[in-house]
Amino acid sequence: MTTWVFTEETNGKATPSALELLAKAREFGEVSVFYVGAGNDAAFAELGEHGAAAVHSMDPGNALPAAAAAAAFADLLEGAQLVLFANGNTDRDVAGRLSARMGRAVVSNALDVINEGTGLAVVTEILGGTEQVITTINADPPALVVSRPKAFAAEPVGGSPPTVTAVAVPDVGHAGSATIVERHEEPSEGPDLEAAALIVTGGRGMGDADRFQILNQLAGALGGAVGATRAVVDAGWVPYSLQIGQTGKTVKPSVYLACGVSGAMQHAVGMKDSGTIIAINKDPEAPIFSISDLGIVGDVHKVVPALIEALQARG
Amino acid sequence: MKIAVCVKQIPDPAAPYELDPENHWVVRPEDQVLDDTDRYGVEVGLQLAAATEGSVTLYSMSPAGSLQGIRQALAMGADRAVIVSDPQLRGSDALVTAHVLSRAIARDENDLVITGTESTDGYAGVVPQQIAELLEVPALTFARHVDASNGGVQIQRQTPDGYEIVTSSLPAVISVTAGAVEPRYPTFKGIMQAKQKPIDQLTANDLGYGPNDVGGIGSGQHVKSVTVIPAREAGEIVEDDGEGYQRIVALLEQAKVI
Question: A167 is in which domain, residue-wise?
Answer without folding.
Answer: 2-176
